Amino acid sequence: xxxxxxxxxxxxxxxxxxxxxxxxxxxxxxxxxxxxxxxxxxxxxxxxxxxxxxxxxxxxxxxxxxxxxxxxxxxxxxxxxxxxxxxxxxxxxxxxxxxxxxxxxxxxxxxxxxxxxxxxxxxxxxxxxxxxxxxxxxxxxxxxxxxxxxxxxxxxxxxxxxxxxxxxxxxxxxxxxxxxxxxxxxxxxxxxxxxxxxxxxxxxxxxxxxxxxxxxxxxxxxxxxxxxxxxxxxxxxxxxxxxxxxxxxxxxxxxxxxxxxxxxxxxxxxxxxxxxxxxxxxxxxxxxxxxxxxxxxxxxxxxxxxxxxxxxxxxxxxxxxxxxxxxxxxxxxxxxxxxxxxxxxxxxxxxxxxxxxxxxxxxxxxxxxxxxxxxxxxxxxxxxxxxxxxxxxxxxxxxxxxxxxxxxxxxxxxx
Amino acid sequence: xxxxxxxxxxxxxxxxxxxxxxxxxxxxxxxxxxxxxxxxxxxxxxxxxxxxxxxxxxxxxxxxxxxxxxxxxxxxxxxxxxxxxxxxxxxxxxxxxxxxxxxxxxxxxxxxxxxxxxxxxxxxxxxxxxxxxxxxxxxxxxxxxxxxxxxxxxxxxxxxxxxxxxxxxxxxxxxxxxxxxxxxxxxxxxxxxxxxxxxxxxxxxxxxxxxxxxxxxxxxxxxxxxxxxxxxxxxxxxxxxxxxxxxxxxxxxxxxxxxxxxxxxxxxxxxxxxxxxxxxxxxxxxxxxxxxxxxxxxxxxxx
Lengths: 415, 303
Fold this sequence. Notes:
A: alpha+beta; Arc Repressor Mutant, subunit A; SH3 type barrels; 4 domains; four-stranded antiparallel sheet; B: five-stranded antiparallel sheet; 10 strands; extended
C-alpha cells in the first residue's frame, strides 16, 4: 500500500512513538526485525507530525531517531498530534462539510430525502460530481448521531435530522490547563483546535509527563466502563512484549503517577479473586462486557486497601499480609524543611518528630520494596532503617554499599 | 471514540480553507499557509492535489467554495463528557465561577474514579477565594502586560513587596502548585502563588526597560545507567520530561545526558540518588561531588 501521512490504526504508531520518545537510542536495525519498510513509514510519519521535535544521531550502529521534547517549554503536549491523524475517504470529508452546511442552514429538522437532494446540488458545480446515495448519507448521519453532533426528531413516521446545539466558546486558559493536567486531556486539545484566533498561552508545566497521551483511547474506554460499572476484557502484552493475552476484569479505578507519568488500571480479577494493577501502556485493547453487581463493594474494598498502598502493589512479594518499614533521619538546626518533606511526600504511614533534629517514618504496607526509591532520596541522613522483610533490608543496605563503591568511597572519605 | 477524523488536523485545515474561500477565492500561498498552521509537514502534498483533482468537493479549482457558512461542529459526546468531568475538579474555579451548563451529560470520570497517588500533600489551596482572585488577576495581567504589586512573607515572617510584570504561570502536578515567572527590578523572579498574600494592579510609572527577565540557567548532567532490575525503563520514564540524550554503550550500560535548570539541581541530585547503584554520575565534577558529599555524610550516619 502506498505511504500516507494519515493512518487507520493507532496501535502500531503508539509503540513507535513511545520508543522514540522514552528510549531514543535504538538504531533502525533494532526496529526492523519485522519490516524495514514499516519502520521507514512510521518514522517518516512521526517526523511529518512532530517536525523539529524529531531528531537524529549518527552512531556506529547507524542512524538513531529520537523525539526530544522539553515539556517545560511546550505549552501543549506535542504527542497529541498523533490523535489528529485518522485517515478518511474522499467521500467522508466531502460529505462532512456539506452535511454540516446543509444542517446549519436549515431552519428546522429535515428528512433524508431533502438532505440527499441538497447534497447533489452542492456537488453539481464540479466537472465530475461525486454521487452519494441515500444509504451512504444515512450511514454517515447515523455515525454522527452516535458521535453526538447530529440529533433526530420524528414527524409522523419520518425521521428528521438537525444539527446539535453549537457550543459557546470556552475560556482558552482553562482548556490550556486541563488539556495538559486532566485525564484524557487530548479531548481538550480537540476543543482548542476548533477555537481559532486565540491569545498566547499563559501557563507552562513542570514535571510534566506527556507519554500517557498515547494511551488516551484505552483510558477513555476504561473510564466509560468504570462509570457504567461494567466488566471488561483487556488484551495485554506479556513481559517479553511479544506474547499477548486476554484477561477478564472489573475495572475499579485509575491510578496516575505524577513522578513517572505511568498510568495504572486497578481492577478486580475474578479468576484470581484479587485486586491488582495493570499498566495502561501494556493494554492493547478494551472490550466492554456486562454490568458488575459487586462494583460498589469492590471499589469500597480498594478504597480500604489504599492506606497500605505506596504505589500500585496490592500484595507482598513474599506472601506476608503486610510488611512493616520504618526509618529514622537526622537533620541540622536550619534544616527543619526535611521534616516537612517527610510530611508532604508520604503517601501513607506516619511521621513522628523524635526531637529537634530527628524524625521517623513508619508504615505497614503491602509491598515495602515500593518505598525504596523514596527512602534513598534521604541518603546523607538515614541513621536507622528496619524492614520486616529482611531480604529487602539487606538489599537496601547492599545497594548503599554498592553506591559507595561506584564513587570510590569504600574505604574512607575521598572527595 | 477518540481516534476519529472529526478531530483530525486535515479536517481542521480544510475547515479553515473553506472559511477563507467563503470570503474570497483562496490563493495557493494562502492555502499552503493554512495547511502549515493546521496540519503537518507533508500535508500540503495530500491536500493540494485533493482539491486540484476535485476529489474533495468542497473547494473549486478557482479557489471558491460550494459551502455557504463558516464550518462549525457541535461538541461530540466525548467532548461534552470530558468537559463535564473537568467541571467537577476544584481547580476549575481558578478560571470561572460557573462551570459549563451540561445538565444531561454524564461525566467521563469523577474524582472518585482516579487518584494521583504520588503528588505532594501541601499543594496550593485552590478552594481559597483570595487565592483564586489573585490567580485571575495575574492571568489578566499576563494577557494585558500589566504591572502588579505583590506582597508575601519571607521565611522569617517579614512582609516583602515587589513590583513585577507577570510573564507566565507554571504548574507542577507533583507539587500541585503554581509559580509565577515575572519581570522585575533589579532581577526577574519566580514566586510561589501560594505564598503571595496580596496582589494588586500597580498604576504608577515604572521604567520598563530596566525590568529584567527571570533567570534561567541551563545545565546538563551525564550519568551511566546500568540496566539491572528494569532500571533502563524506570530511569528513562522518570527523566522523560527533560530534554535528554541516550546512547547505548554496551548490552547493560547506557550513557544518559539530561538538561536541567540550575535552580532544580538539588531536586535532580535526590532524584538520581533514588535509583541507587543503577546510576553513576560521571560529569560534571561539581555534580559528581554533590552525590559524593551525600554518600560521605551517609557513611557518617552509622547505618
